[in-house]
Design a protein that fits this description.
The structure is a homotetramer. Chain A is built from 16 helices and 13 strands. Chain A is α/β, with parallel strands linked by helices.
């Protein structure tokens, strides 16, 4: 009897962070993959991860619409509750032997709570990291619900143990997203036209003289300020006067403010060297980064994959505060001048040294092997 | 402007554990109480806490039906999700300054997640304790979502800090349930007739020669075994041949097994010295315990209030394992012989020394004062 | 490509009313059966239809817990809403070509609304009947959502057309429950021991001198009176002094009052010739009726199957008012004297003439054939 | 004791259709207004009716987020189910004597079902009309759940009676939206600048030479075609070469297609005499219509208010098919040439005769009086 491993993907970024593990689970002789796609991962507006997942050849066992309209704090809570209800039904019908939940977005608590309440051994990917905002609370709450912890860094594992988890349930697997980065490094040249492949808004811009990539999400605990924050980044980047590829943020409380800031900037400034994209397939996005001068914003990609790839990063504001980082990152405030300064410093320095901080590129297979081997248990106590 | 303190009561036992704090909040000059009653606390079948709450003169701002039928693991998960959705709406309409969630039942995660996702400072009562079962996971997950921790014991506070909570957010307030016990101790005689006041099932039994009280809940991680476990207790107690006052268990996955075990025992054995009750008003229950020879089962009352009252307790099985205990407790397995032996030992020894392990009887006022004084914050990071 | 026919069974009685159609759909060369079991049909407390469905060899595609605890009007509404949400997900994953909803219980609106909102052609079984209570509103609302109407009687079809449905979408198929009755009539003797097969509560009673069967549900619009009503029936039947087989009511607002009335009667009267059952497999129940002196209560079985079987029926109160009936029925008020009088009249008269009012015993096959032939449409307008 | 009248507003258009009744209820000596705002009425993206409601001075008892992201058929069903659950809780806490639901959008079934299941007398506004699409099913299903019917036209009342409703529960009150139109007619000149008051997208256009107004919603049963349909209207209107004020559609399955069509048209054609608005305050919108050359699209405003105001209307496609209309309407297919032709015909003819088809301008007060006088009943049977 193969172990049935149910993986719940709830967002575009989470898919990138689990994809090589999905492949490894699917091809493992002792495992059966049960893939569930839910939340913003089924919504066109947030990049329609479902489309990419199917294009990658994965069979999807169930899809669940669970995101409420409103993009505010109330709807984040309600979407999570709704997800918990429906995922319980999904698990009751699929009867998995283990459930995997990924990272720390608000709706991941739905997966974690449903599985742990149903006595299904729960694996949490990417626990033990420290950032800011509600993600922080969610991530550690999921740690306390999970039976196994597959972390990205040694320090993360250490934190999970200090929170009272037993050492034999904590594994530093590295992040599967680094596996994709490792693949990209084998052929890193930009071998596709981003504008013809992904469309987007605005005229194509000339990438030959170098370009920067921007990806800035709203911060849920700074909900009211998301518009003000995005404006600083918009003008900081504009003043750098480089070809700019700007990516739309994910669904989250506050992204209406972020979106509105971007829209008004476009109407007012009609920036000719800006192009706006929604989402790229993960390895295309990494290739784009590999060939960029810098990534700006507050995405974790800048901290994680870009440390592995050696891409210079300008990290704006509080969203990634506390997260371990390599030498590729310059941290700045929500301030257009600091942002501009950091971009210029990176331009003068160029590419950075690569680091294995977040993984060695073999996480997917390592995870599948662990899933086939660890004991199936769902009871635990504090280690102290 | 008074601080609006929203307290969500979801079960009979939780009401007993917060009642003196509710009174203190209501009469505090700087606080306004917003009381929400939900889950099994609105269901007649589980003791109808709502009725007692209204009888105690509290104004109830909102009631929420949220428990799904089935009493199994799936429905526990779904009820919690449903509660999260509806409590988000309640909080959105009441706009509290702080929310209080109590202890560790599965549905308390609904309150905790809704409040923390909505950036409302969350206070968790009774964190840091160690037991078994799903409660363990829920309790510590709520700790990671909460901004303030009002614990019952020094060791519990220490555990909360070790889990990474900042010391300045952790207060050892003691348990408000001990406040009621302290009140009962001022006039501990059994001054009411339990049968005429609370009805119940079975003929009245003669309490004059001494009696025992039994309260045994199903254990969610031992779902399948709940019927076998209750049978051991039923026969262990029967063999002690004492007047027995048996209390019906709470709603929880597995209580159908527990209930069925009890019903079949009644049909088969027609026990003449057993009487079955649903629920008592908290102080009546404590008076009943004060005058009993022993409490048997796996209720936390046996560990907490009874240590303060010095009532001998036979603690059966795993549900309270890990919880700190006074000298009044004898632990036994799910085994009728061990249970009988422990009862007999207690009968030969009599009352035990009182202990302040779980509180000094002044928790309610202490909590209200803290609620009026602590800063309103909802962001946090691991302390390490 | 076979047409995928999704049938949602939400209660024990509904299963009996669709079973022969399920068999016919399953074995039809152009149809594929997608069976979903939900609501009280998955709950042990209400007869656990799921167990019988599986025992009958049907594959169940999905099960959904959706009934909230409380058994009151609020929880009926909430359960229906919850069901609508979850069934939408189920339909989205199963992608049926047609959906079938059965009869008029509150939760059938969930199936009907989910399917019609999703542009899936909806078939309603048993529309056009007239009773009382909330069922009346639900039944006709479902008619207005449905694309096809498979009714039991000619008068029902006529009513559906008068409500504005187009004649070409209305078929008088007869009720599949009559198919089972027709099968039972082929070998109607009581060839099993009800007590050993179904257990129940109370000592076995002697059936040799004749017995009556009682089945009385609470009436949702007379919520407060359900206990008073059941008491009249209890004493009316008791005074008849016959062996009595009493069946527990379904989940519905008010059944707590009904249940309480029965429990108190048992405690007080300790009736020696009463035996209480939960639920029988449908054909066993019909056999029991075939051999009984009379059925008493307000179940539709007394009106429908019993008219086909010729079993004398005492119909109590308003629940079936308006429903077409054969000559086997005597209608009485909630009054113990009238009930007793009607029982005695039936005893003196004996069995009645059989009637094809509700079907000819071939409904199941007729329904499957229609499902394979009718056009798949989901748009409609009032016929006037 | 005043009668508590709970009105649930779930969309911008519904607010316009109930507003004068709200005012009349609020000021009626025997009535107390309990206003609940939910669904798209609380979402900024769909016009934020809540803001206008508060600006109009109404006290809002409860707000409910209940719309799921996705704007497809699955999410329409799920949003309705979610609304039914939450509105049940709202009604359980507000304890209204009557509930009012308005018109026929998918989510109005949530209000209707929750109220009728809870035995609260339900008033349905605007029943008995005939259109196309899912609205048709919803409207008549709500009729079958409702206890009172306040219709807009005599023919609508006749249809409601033919569906089996008792004549004494059916009142032709006229539509409250006509009350606003009657008020506007007292001072119909365009006394505000639409661009400065409402912003919108695109440069201001010159209104002095005459302008047209466009409002076209997606049709749920023609989900896949919504983009193709909007394109015909876009080019038909463009070819008329008039100043064009285009209003964004409501939330509904398919509006993503509609929105996308509009966005691509704008990018491609960069139309200089088009301006895009989201929503206007109702009387401002009517003033704008009064002074327009024509309204184009498939909004019911073109049929209802514009017949009263005598504004020429081009009605495109199936959405309003079956609805009674005055002499102001020209019906056309989804065809740019027909659309252009109808606009040109209207331009040559000018304003039309006014009609009282949908009301006499006194509906609000009439409704409040009825609400204070009709018996409170919640049981009904088919009239035949």
């Amino acid at each position: 009897m193969k172990r049935k491993i149910c993986v719940v993907v709830t967002a575009r970024p989470s898919y990138a962070r689990i994809k090589t593990a999905l492949t490894a689970i699917r091809s493992h002789p002792d495992l059966e993959l049960q893939l569930v796609v839910a939340a913003s991962a089924v919504l066109e507006r947030y990049g329609d991860a479902l489309k990419y997942i199917k294009a990658d050849g994965f069979e999807v066992k169930s899809t669940v619409f669970m995101v409420l309209e409103g993009e505010n704090l109330v709807t984040s809570a309600k979407s999570t509750g709704l997800g918990m209800m429906e995922l319980a039904t999904v698990f009751d019908n699929l009867k998995p032997d283990m459930v995997i939940t990924i990272a720390d977005r608000y709706e991941t608590l739905a997966t974690a709570a449903a599985a742990s309440y149903m006595n299904i051994p729960l694996v949490h990917m990417q626990g033990g990291e420290v950032t800011g905002s509600i993600d922080e609370k969610v991530r550690h709450a999921v740690t306390k619900l999970a039976d196994y912890h597959f972390t990205c860094t040694e320090i993360a594992s250490e934190r999970v143990r200090r929170m009272g988890e037993h050492a034999e349930h904590v594994y530093t697997t590295g992040c599967p997203s680094i596996d994709i980065a490792a693949d990209v490094l084998k052929a890193p040249e930009l071998d596709f036209n981003p504008f013809s492949r992904y469309g987007g808004v605005g005229d194509p811009v000339d990438l030959k003289q170098g370009y920067v990539v921007v990806l800035q999400h709203p911060v849920t605990t700074e909900y009211e300020s998301s518009r003000k924050h995005i404006v600083e980044t918009l003008y900081g980047v504009k003043d750098a006067n480089l070809a700019t590829l700007w990516f739309w943020p994910n669904v989250d409380a506050g992204s209406d403010g972020t979106s509105k800031g971007i829209r008004i900037f476009r109407e007012k400034e009609k920036p000719v060297n800006f192009h706006f994209f929604k989402n790229f397939e993960a390895s295309d996005f990494l290739k784009l980064l590999c060939n960029s001068k810098s990534i700006i914003g507050n995405s974790s990609v800048a901290i994680r994959e870009c440390s592995f790839l050696g891409v210079p990063a300008v990290n704006v504001g509080t969203r990634q505060s506390g997260r371990e980082r390599g030498s590729n990152v310059i941290d700045v405030d929500y301030d257009r001048h600091q942002i501009l300064g950091a971009i210029q410093k990176h331009l003068s320095t160029g590419k950075r040294e690569r680091s294995n901080l977040y993984g060695d590129g073999k996480a997917g297979v390592r995870i599948a092997d662990l899933l086939s081997e660890v004991p199936l248990h769902f009871e635990k106590k504090l280690a102290y």
